[in-house]
């Protein structure tokens, strides 16, 4: 017992910062301290009337028209007011904010009337724009849902207040999720949900020693029942007020009672009440001081490399895929299935495809997993990637906008597939690399180590495909000198003896030549006669290789020139999963009648699709756990208290945006931990909480900014996805590639879409005033309106939230077509702080700043600003239009790394199209240049060969090192207008010095990447070129004939 106590104290001390954030010590969370401010939290009684409050409390479901009464009442009282105290009291009464500047002006008799009139003018304007405000408020709810995967809009009631040992508490015990419905005629507040417990508040109460019967909180149907439970629990006979009475704003310093007191009020607002289970799990981990045990990493990273290599070479045929993948994605998939892995996914590199393939393999291997992200967009994309497989995965997403059909359709498809399984489908025998290719690469590598490769290649080039002569050549010996042959065999033999100073035997005066030397000379003559090959051109090579080596080298021409066409296994997986589940159901029929009956009820209810989604989940939770081995959800979703290592895998997407205390409890539940994210993108932020940022603790990994930073600090094995598929133009990603990914991120122009206007810059010369640039805002709206019919999806991005708010307000008030585009999700308005996870065909950017802006004090130049910039400028798929009122010539200087990155980007915007396109290209020949030429002799030989032997029926030209973004194709054949026709990649088998199969597969993956971007590639392998030039000539001519 004492050991546990000591561990608890040790853990709490060591991880005090983590524990403070877990307990929300420094919180401004409305779920723990509620304050009506008429921007995020509203008192329903004073705002809409007591009748609305009573209906919300008295009806299980409601659909109520709401009209603001408080503004008109405030207008009336301000109009009647004759001194400053009356106006100040009126604002406090109706819970509207009155700025100190206004209070000062009101207190001055000379300015009282003028300020009063200004306040009335402002209030009347607010009254007129009531519907616009609610649209903006609803948009904030939707944004929170997209950013944090929570539904924040609730009504809350049954308030309690008290002082805990940690902080002052004033918050609702119960809440109900609701929605705003806005049309031309009215604004409605509606809900079909049950009341639910405020998990955070219960957690804080339990921290104070209160113990509750949590089963009472599972499904709160009757509000009076839960009210009665709490009144009895806290020994309160009756409330001396009506719950529907007005809410009272209470200051923290006025809360002095340690005994629980109930307070009136029903409020509407943005709350984040969930997460109690996570917090309990995290606290348990800290108290037991076992946090260090969750992530274990071997300092010897070669072990992880070897694990992946062994799987690729020996077990890759076991993999199944439901999404196409490149080599870096395959490596990430393999590593994730066998060991803790960080999947480093820069923008647009196919992270969701990898996760979809991971899930598919987990399902096929009959394992379990929990998959989580705080980004709704990430999970929505994942669901699309899974396609039919998503029916076998349970998605529990907190999305109040989801209708019944959207919820039930996957469940109905699941039942249909299980109960109507098709004929057995065989798995595709896909391999990342064939055994034949492995053997060839090993052989070439060994030859290069032994210095046999070049000598063997030279002798094969001399003899072409004439293996009979080559065999004769190896009957020669390189220790002899061979004379020139001049059509006289006897003379040749005689000269051979003389040159090599061999003594001729004489018998009875006759010269007797040895049979051995006669045979040697006959072989030499046959070679000369049949091929006109001079002996001295190859004889020195004979002793440096052997015939068996050449025969094996000849087989190397069979080395694959392209990645094999991987067949997708989606239908196979649907079939095998259906068969497996049906078998389980049939076994229940005989061995577990209860589960069998549960399944029948589940299937019938899914087909009927009558219950509200969350009620359906509650009704069938037991059978759902049996049927769905993989759960995809958000960390804030209430979930069962699973034990440590309950799941085989945990997959956390967007982990660079997840706080440690949120993610670690999830990792605690699994054996293998997989984290996807990008350390060069945004760090986690909170809309609801103020965190403990103190730096007084030990320098422990747990003080990292994000979960991704934490596991990287721990040394978890990383694999970077290195090919950007999102952007059609290299210039859209080249700045990020160079400045954030050391140019290791491959960015390539789409051949058919590339255009020199992928980044357009307009110098607006607007003025920055109070965080807003009106001129840029107006132009941004105009640009979006001009481009609306040209793009399926548009993001209007601003560099601060004030600019975004004024743009949204302008659109909602004056641009009905753009308002509709927002509702239809064709247009999204974002600021730089909340853009991560979004992408669009067109991104319109308003930088906002002008020459007088102190950039160093702005978000983009503060710590983490460069990461936000990276996210912001990597969202566009086809085009980015940048509106700016600042450039590098007139910007105020700054010293931070974040400022310098922003400064570089402004410079980048002024570059030409060609400069932007090749901005991130690495100079791969820096070392060689000091010794001479950049291009290899082999590449020049291929160039000359094409010029001499390949012909087309139209004029063409060949370009060396053809640039397509961060990569250059060795040789490119283009037409008269410079349009790309065919790329030639020169393959000199550079698969040695420890790179082997990895280099080979990376090269083929890059070739495949080029081809997906519209660049057909022909690979010229060195062995083919040396011995099969006629074959290459024929292949190239035929291919060009087809392409031209």
Automatic annotation (TrEMBL):
Span of domain DNA2/NAM7 helicase helicase = 325-501
- What keywords are assigned to this protein? ATP-binding, Helicase, Hydrolase, Nucleotide-binding
Q: Could you tell me which Pfam families the record lists for this protein?
A: AAA_11, AAA_12, MTES_1575
- Tell me one GO molecular function of this protein: hydrolase activity
Which part of the chain is the DNA2/NAM7 helicase-like C-terminal domain? 705-883
Where would I find the Restriction endonuclease type II-like domain in this sequence?
938-1038
**Keyword Hydrolase among record annotations:** yes
Per its UniProt record, what InterPro entries does this chain match?
Answer: Coronavir_polyprotein_1ab, DNA2/NAM7-like_C, DNA2/NAM7_AAA_11, P-loop_NTPase, Restrct_endonuc-II-like_dom, SF1_C_Upf1
> What protein family does this chain belong to?
Belongs to the DNA2/NAM7 helicase family.
Q: What is this protein called?
A: ATP-binding protein
Q: Which organism is it from?
A: Mesoplasma tabanidae
């Amino acid at each position: 017992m004492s050991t546990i106590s000591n561990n608890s104290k040790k853990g709490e001390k060591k991880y005090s910062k983590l524990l403070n954030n877990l307990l929300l010590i420094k919180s401004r969370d409305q779920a723990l301290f509620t304050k009506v401010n008429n921007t995020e939290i509203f008192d329903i009684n004073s705002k809409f009337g007591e009748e609305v409050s009573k209906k919300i409390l008295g009806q299980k479901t409601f659909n109520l028209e709401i009209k603001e009464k408080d503004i008109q009442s405030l207008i009336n009282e301000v109009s009647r007011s004759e001194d400053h105290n009356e106006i100040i009291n009126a604002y406090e009464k109706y819970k509207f904010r009155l700025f100190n500047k206004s209070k000062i002006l009101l207190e001055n008799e000379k300015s009282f009337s003028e300020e009063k009139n200004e306040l009335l003018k402002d209030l009347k304007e607010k009254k007129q724009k009531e519907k616009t405000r609610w649209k903006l408020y609803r948009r904030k709810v939707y944004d929170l849902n997209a950013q944090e995967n929570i539904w924040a809009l609730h009504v809350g009631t049954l308030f309690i207040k008290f002082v805990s040992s940690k902080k002052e508490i004033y918050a609702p015990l119960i809440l109900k999720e609701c929605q705003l419905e806005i049309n031309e005629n009215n604004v409605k507040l509606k809900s079909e949900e049950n009341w639910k417990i405020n998990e955070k508040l219960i957690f804080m109460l339990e921290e104070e020693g209160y113990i509750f019967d949590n089963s009472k909180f599972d499904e709160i149907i009757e509000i009076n029942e839960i009210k009665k439970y709490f009144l009895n629990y806290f020994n309160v006979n009756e409330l001396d007020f009506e719950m529907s009475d007005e809410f009272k704003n209470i200051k923290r310093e006025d809360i002095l009672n340690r005994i629980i007191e109930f307070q009136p009020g029903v409020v509407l607002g943005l709350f984040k009440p969930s997460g109690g289970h996570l917090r309990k799990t995290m606290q348990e981990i800290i108290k037991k001081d076992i946090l260090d045990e969750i992530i274990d990493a071997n300092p010897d990273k070669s072990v992880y490399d070897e694990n992946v290599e062994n799987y690729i070479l020996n077990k890759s045929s076991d993999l199944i895929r439901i999404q196409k993948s490149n080599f870096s994605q395959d490596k990430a998939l393999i590593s994730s299935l066998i060991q803790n892995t960080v999947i480093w996914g820069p923008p647009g590199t196919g992270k969701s495809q990898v996760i979809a393939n991971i899930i598919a393999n987990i399902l096929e291997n009959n394992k379990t997993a929990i998959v989580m992200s705080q980004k709704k967009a990430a999970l929505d994309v994942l669901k699309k990637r899974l396609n039919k497989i998503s029916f076998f995965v349970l998605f529990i997403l907190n999305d109040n906008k989801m209708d019944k059909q959207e919820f039930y359709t996957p469940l109905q498809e699941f039942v249909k597939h299980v109960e109507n399984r098709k004929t057995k489908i065989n798995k595709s025998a896909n391999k990342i690399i064939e055994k034949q290719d492995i053997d060839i690469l090993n052989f070439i590598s060994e030859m290069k180590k032994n210095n046999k490769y070049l000598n063997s290649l030279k002798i094969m080039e001399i003899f072409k495909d004439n293996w009979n002569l080559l065999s004769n050549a190896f009957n020669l010996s390189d220790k002899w000198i061979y004379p020139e042959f001049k059509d006289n065999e006897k003379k040749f033999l005689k000269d051979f003896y003389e040159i090599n100073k061999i003594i001729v035997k004489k018998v009875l005066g006759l010269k007797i030549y040895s049979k051995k030397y006669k045979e040697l000379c006959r072989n030499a003559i046959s070679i000369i006669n049949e091929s006109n090959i001079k002996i001295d051109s190859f004889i020195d090579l004979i002793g440096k290789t052997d015939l068996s080596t050449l025969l094996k080298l000849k087989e190397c021409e069979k080395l694959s020139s392209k990645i094999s066409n991987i067949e997708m296994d989606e239908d196979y997986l649907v079939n095998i999963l259906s068969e497996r589940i049906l078998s389980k159901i049939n076994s229940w029929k005989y061995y577990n009648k209860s589960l069998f009956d549960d399944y029948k009820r589940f299937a019938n209810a899914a087909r009927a699709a009558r219950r509200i989604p969350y009620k359906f989940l509650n009704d069938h939770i037991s059978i759902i756990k049996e049927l769905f081995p993989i759960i995809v959800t958000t960390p804030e979703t209430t979930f069962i208290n699973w034990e440590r290592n309950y799941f085989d895998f945990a997959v956390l997407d967007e982990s660079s945006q997840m706080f440690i205390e949120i993610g670690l409890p999830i990792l605690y539940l699994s054996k293998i931990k997989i984290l996807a994210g990008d350390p060069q993108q945004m760090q986690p932020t909170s809309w609801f909480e103020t965190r403990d940022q103190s730096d007084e603790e030990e320098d422990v990994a747990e003080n990292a900014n994000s979960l991704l930073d934490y596991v990287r600090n721990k040394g978890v094995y990383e694999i970077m996805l290195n090919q950007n598929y999102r952007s059609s133009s290299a210039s859209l990603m080249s700045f990020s590639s160079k400045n954030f990914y050391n140019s290791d991120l491959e960015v390539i122009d789409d051949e058919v879409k590339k255009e020199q206007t992928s980044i357009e810059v307009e110098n607006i010369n607007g003025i920055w005033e109070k965080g807003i640039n009106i001129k840029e805002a107006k132009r941004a709206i105009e640009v979006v309106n001009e481009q609306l019919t040209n793009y399926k999806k548009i993001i209007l991005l601003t560099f601060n939230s004030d600019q975004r708010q004024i743009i949204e307000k302008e659109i909602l008030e004056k641009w009905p077509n753009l308002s509709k585009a927002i509702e239809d999700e064709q247009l999204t308005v974002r600021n730089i702080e909340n853009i991560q996870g979004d992408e669009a065909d067109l991104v319109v950017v308003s930088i906002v700043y002008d020459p007088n802006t102190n950039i160093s004090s702005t978000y983009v130049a503060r710590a983490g600003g460069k990461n936000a910039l990276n996210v912001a400028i990597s969202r566009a798929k086809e085009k980015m239009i940048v509106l700016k009122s600042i450039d590098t010539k007139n910007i105020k200087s700054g010293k931070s790394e974040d400022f310098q990155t922003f400064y570089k980007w402004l410079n980048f915007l002024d570059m030409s199209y060609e400069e932007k396109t090749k901005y991130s290209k690495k100079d791969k020949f820096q070392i060689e240049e000091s010794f001479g030429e950049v291009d290899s002799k082999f590449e020049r030989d291929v160039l000359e060969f094409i010029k001499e032997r390949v012909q087309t029926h139209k004029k063409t030209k060949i370009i060396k090192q053809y640039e397509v973004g961060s990569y250059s194709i060795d040789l490119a054949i283009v037409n008269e207008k410079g349009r790309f026709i065919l790329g030639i990649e020169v393959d000199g088998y550079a698969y040695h010095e420890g790179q082997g199969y990895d280099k080979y597969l990376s090269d083929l993956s890059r070739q495949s990447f080029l081809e997906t971007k519209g660049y057909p590639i022909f690979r010229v392998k060195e062995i083919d070129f040396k011995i099969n030039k006629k074959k290459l000539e024929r292949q190239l001519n035929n291919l060009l004939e087809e392409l031209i």
